[in-house]
Amino acid sequence: MDYFAAALTGVPGVGARRLRALLTCFQSAEQVWRATEKELYASHTLPESVIQKLISYRRKTDIAKIQEDMRRVGVQCVTCFESNYPMLLGQTNNPPAVLFYKGNLPEGNRIVSIVGSRKATPYGVNVSYQLAKELAAHGVTIVSGGARGIDTEAHKGALASGGATIVVAASGLDYVYPQENRKLFKAVCEHGGAVVSEYPLGVRPCGRQFPARNRIIAGMSCGVVVVEAAERSGSLITSDFALEEGRDVFAVPGSIFSSLSKGTNRLLRKGAICITCSMEILQEYNWGITEIPQPGHADVLEPDEEWVYRFCSTGSMVTEEEILEQSGFSIPRLKLLLVKLQCKGKIREVRNGVFVAI
Amino acid sequence: MFSQVSGATTLGINGHVITVEVDISRGVTGFNIVGLAAASVREAKERVRAAIQNSGYQFPLGKVTVNLAPADLKKDGSGLDLPIAIGLLAASGQISGQCLQGRIFIGELSLQGRIRPVPGVLSMVLAARQAGFSIFIMAPSSAPEALLCEQIQVFAPQTLRELVEAMLEHAALHPEIRREEKKSVTYAVDFSEVQGQQLAKRAMEIAAAGAHNLLMIGPPGSGKTMLARRITTILPPMNREEALEVTKIYSVAGLFKAEHIIRERPFRSPHHTISMAGLTGGGSIPRPGEVTLAHYGVLFLDELPEFPRSVLEGLRQPMEDGEVHIARVNAAFTYPADFMLVAAMNPCPCGYLGDPDHACSCTDGEIRRYARKISGPLLDRIDLHVSVARPRYQELTSQKKGETSREIAARVAAARKIQRERLRKWHMQNNAQMGHRQIKETCILQEKGKKILKDIFDKLHLSARSYDRIIKVSRTIADLEGAEQIEPEHIIEAISYRSRVTRR
């Protein structure tokens, strides 16, 4: 592993572009590290002020310590010139010069990213989980940002069918953001996936790193599925990156009244590919099944169940109290119906006593 | 000259008979009180001296020593003024020492010579009667409280002079007459005043029926406090022993003002700024805390996450044992604390999470931090969780009257009776007290119920630790219906009251 390359990612003023230039010019990271001031000036890769920063950074940085830290956290790294660097990402305009990762990097090109709002609605959560689960079952690796809402569900969905999934983090891999996903990220690494980042250890998550992270999400995959996005949303940044790199943009249609579907519906109007089931993505790339299966035999609902289900499907969330009042069922009867519908997967309890149809 | 009188004091919530010995010897004039007397008892000197003189008697010359026995018991409060004054008068020969035997004197003295009431009279009388005393002398306003105890005689003179004159047989003192005991229970509130909220009311009925602890989650203004205030009205009435115990606690705490025994179950709702000492009891001789004041009643904690975590942790032991143990340098105290916990909280810091009409302005992190303020072990001890939705306009203005507390209370009482009989073997009163063993023996599920429970557990991802709680609650629901067996619908209803506070 190239610890010199890992160390160079920490130089202030040296981003992915400059680091790639340095590595190209000096052949290897070790030579950059050992280059004299004169050689650095002669390479014409960095402006003068940055060269000074590089030199002072080199002086106070201990490669052995970086090596030790990475081993302790279990982080590996790969430069964009190595063969195991994710291929699709390597083909982009501005790939990270060094990619840090925990777990196993994806092989092949069957990669799709699923992105969307952090404050997802139950609809978005279901779509994300379902899409990821079905795609992963067909051997597609799911890439997402590990954020709350849509991202988390996508990772969970992929894990549910035993597929590989990649979390692209916006911080050093010793930070877990958001905290509550610690277990999820661990599971991702243990099940053939990886958590990756372009930032060295010790970099905290901070606002401007998230759009930069989105370019990696878009870059790693053949296409980006936007499940739910508001009018101004980070997911739309990801889809813009995808377009720049010539990757496909898929969008899941949503209610015209939902503010979290405004972004996706606009994408569709602008020409994004409309996605209503996972097969449509598989068909788009000719990955496996070409035939869209007929919807299976649906669960038959009893008349009372049907009544409650309809009541829940008005689009907004309904409280148990409202159903009780409108239906005139006894409390035990209503509770029974609600539990049955939940078990049949027809409705979901979003909050204590608040239901919504799926 | 020497005399001996009996008085009484309280330590914790129990009374103790104190023997007051007075000795007057020749020597330099002085007045000493020995026998572990607290400051309020030592101050008796001045009150007693003034009261005796202002009542027209002689304060003896010479060296006066008052000993309070047993000497190792810490004595607090001003109730020993009267026995000390009487002892002084007897020792100085102004009254006969003969008429002091078998009597207990309780009361504080004013400088003028009036006898004033002291807190904790009921405990003192109960303890003294146990020790064989049956005649009590105290302030008039303490008499009704003392007479809650049966088979005793109470004399209540207004002043020290009136008492001494009676002892000198210059005047007659008549024993106080017992009043007719109040049998009925009256509450100022009623469940029929709550509009709508059918589900919450149902949950309260189940909680009351099985003495389960209850947590209400709902946005501000949804009526959580209103509902909680009414839960005591549907609990079964206390029997006489329970009522007497509650009255005793209130008497010691100085909160007993009425003349009748407390028949209504206590409802305590401390503010969330309460300290640990305020909740469990505190002080060098601990005063009863809120958990003890809620004995046999309801402890309502509104805005549960706002309570300091350490204070809430202090609730765990009393909730488990039904009593609270407080250790102090001089003694360890055990106070009863068999209460039902009713707690209320908002779903998130702003209060509007999941509200159909308001948008919640909290971030996920804030919501988790809010829920994390309540410790898991405390949540584990709350069997029923129910969400309370804000009633809509139609519900508030509807003319439909809800059920009255009396109707609900009848069902609750019937369910409690079934439970008592079933759990008699283990000396338990209600389903909430059941441990794993009792659940295994009394809550046998049929095959069908087991299968349903398993299906739901798998589908809804329930945790194993909620299992016992669900079974306990379904047992109570079955008892409310008078059903012998736990049927699937009971289980399903119980499952809907499971905990859904996400703390991760």
UniProtKB/TrEMBL annotation, chain A:
Belongs to the DprA/Smf family. It comes from Allisonella histaminiformans. SUPFAM superfamilies: MCP/YpsA-like (SSF102405), RuvA domain 2-like (SSF47781). One of its GO terms (biological process) is DNA-mediated transformation. It comes from the Bacteria. Gene3D superfamilies: 3.40.50.450. InterPro entries: DprA, DrpA_SLOG, RuvA_2-like. Residues 77-285 form the Smf/DprA SLOG domain. Transmembrane segments: none annotated. This is DNA processing protein.
UniProtKB/TrEMBL annotation, chain B:
Residues 210-392 form the AAA+ ATPase domain. Pfam families: ChlI, Mg_chelatase, Mg_chelatase_C. Keywords: ATP-binding, Nucleotide-binding. GO terms for molecular function: ATP binding; DNA binding. Belongs to the Mg-chelatase subunits D/I family. ComM subfamily. This is Magnesium chelatase family protein.
